[in-house]
Specification:
five-stranded antiparallel beta sheet, alpha+beta, binds adenosine monophosphate, HIT family, subunit A, about 35% helix
Length: about 130
C-alpha cells in the first residue's frame, strides 16, 4: 500500500486542497515552492501512462481545476506541472507555483511551518470550484 493510499484512507494526515470521488490533491510536505501540490488518483496505480486514456483525461480535468485554484491563491508567474514518481510509485502530478526555472528543480526545497501549510491549503481550497 502506498503512502498516498494511506493519505486517501485517512490513515495518515495531509494538507488537503481538493477532493472528489476519484481524485485528491494535497500539499507536498517537502515543497519546491509555496503551494507545491500533488494531484493523485484514489485508485493506486504505479505509472501515469499505465492509466487508461479515459482515466488519464479525467485526472487532467481535475488537475486543471486544482491548478487554476493554485494560480488564484498563490502569487507566482505561473503554475508548472511535472510527473516524476521515482519516490512514490502511486500516480501523482506535481503542480508547482513558479517564478524561476529553479522552482521546477527538485533540488531546491523550502521549509514551511505547520501553520503555513494549513493556511496555504485553506486558501487554495477556497478557490477550488
Ligand atoms: P516523486 O515520486 O519523485 O514524484 O516524489 C514524491 C513526492 O511526494 C515528493 O515531492 C515528496 O515530498 C512527496 N511526499 C512524500 N510523502 C508525502 C506525504 N506524506 N505528504 C505529502 N507529500 C509527500
Amino acid at each position: 500500500m502506498s503512502i498516498f493510499t494511506k493519505i486517501i484512507s485517512g490513515e495518515i494526515p495531509s494538507y488537503k486542497v481538493a477532493e472528489n470521488n476519484s481524485f485528491i490533491a494535497f500539499l507536498d510536505i517537502n515543497p519546491n515552492a509555496k503551494g507545491h501540490t500533488l494531484v493523485v488518483p484514489k485508485k493506486e496505480e504505479n505509472k501515469i501512462f499505465d492509466l487508461s486514456k479515459v482515466d488519464y483525461n479525467k485526472l487532467m480535468e481535475f488537475t486543471y481545476d486544482v491548478a487554476r485554484a493554485i494560480e488564484k491563491a498563490v502569487p507566482c508567474q505561473r503554475v508548472g506541472m511535472s510527473v516524476i514518481g521515482l519516490e512514490v510509485p502511486h500516480v501523482h502530478i506535481h503542480l508547482i507555483p513558479i517564478n524561476t526555472m529553479v522552482d521546477m528543480q527538485f533540488t531546491n526545497k523550502i521549509k514551511l511551518s505547520n501553520s503555513q501549510f494549513i493556511s496555504l491549503a485553506e486558501k487554495i481550497a477556497s478557490f477550488y470550484i
